[in-house]
Amino acid sequence: MNNKKTDSNPWSKNQQIKNRKNNDNVFRNSPAPSEMKFNEAHGKLQAAVQKHVKDYESSSDEEELESEDIIDGILKNYTETGGKGECLGRTRTFLQDSILSGTVTCLICISRVRRDSAIWSCFECYCVFHLSCIQRWSKDSPCPPCPVTVSVSCYCGSQQPKTQRCNNKEWSCGNRCGKLLACQKHTCSDPCHFGDCHPCSKKSLQKCLCKNNQKLRDCATPTWKCDKVCNKLLECGNHTCLVVCHEEDCDPCPLTQLRTCPCGKSKYQLSCTEETPTCLDTCDKILKCGIHKCNQRCHKEACGVCLETVEKSCKCGLHSKEVHCYKPYFCETKCKRMKDCNKHPCNKK
């Protein structure tokens, strides 16, 4: 006997198949975990991008305003020095396009020059370079030859100018130089050359500084000094220079300067032909004794001897006496001091 239970209803089989298909559709339509994570990350990224775009737009507006202030400051210096503002239209447009579009490029490294970059600008073409680039470039290699052509004469200047490259503009015509040498007597016999001419190799009669004497000397050393007094007539027309041979102009006549009387107490401005007068005051110069003063009136001759009376001791020191200051005092006693031989006395009075 077969105990296995069989379902004789065909509709129940169809219902089971339908239920299995529905379960498969539900499983397929539900999102996978990885897809959910991707969608979540994508949403956050989109939000960040939108925020960045808003910040960039606001910062761009601020940069435009700041750039306008910079351009106004640059052009203000031009107008303050007398320039006309209407002539700056193209300049302003160029600066705006360069700054706002970021098209300023360093011609050495071929990279963008940023607003905060240290720069150097050429004084001729006004091109902008990074400061670090121009410093490194100037150290690593020499400047290129100047391409400009100029019209230049030869070294000696005897030939007509001809067109030469600026970096190689000096040239020699090959003819005799012919320039007057420092001696002012002979000319240079060297071929057309660069720089100063050589010293003259010839000899000639050369006058001294005061022009009163002359002798044969090398033209290369024309300056020499004799040992004689100058003797040139001074500006006063009455006296001659008493200074030894010199090159510079003679000094003014010393007698035309402010002069003092013989005792030095009074000053006079006189002609060099007038004699200095004496004042009526006491001379008061220190006499030769070094102690007393001259009691005579101002005088031209030398002061006399000191007539003051003073007490003086003799050389041996045994006696003293009042005598005139200028006179020495000798007593009548014989000197008993021993001579250098230490055997005999002096015995002089």
Automatic annotation (TrEMBL):
Q: Which residues form the RING-type domain?
A: 106-146
Q: Which UniProt keywords apply?
A: Metal-binding, Repeat, Zinc, Zinc-finger
* Top-rank taxon: Eukaryota
Task: Name one cellular component (GO) term.
Answer: nucleus
Q: Does the keyword Zinc apply?
A: yes
Q: Name one Pfam family in it.
A: zf-NF-X1
Q: Which GO terms describe its molecular function?
A: DNA-binding transcription factor activity, RNA polymerase II-specific; RNA polymerase II transcription regulatory region sequence-specific DNA binding; zinc ion binding
Q: What is this protein identified as?
A: NF-X1-type zinc finger protein NFXL1
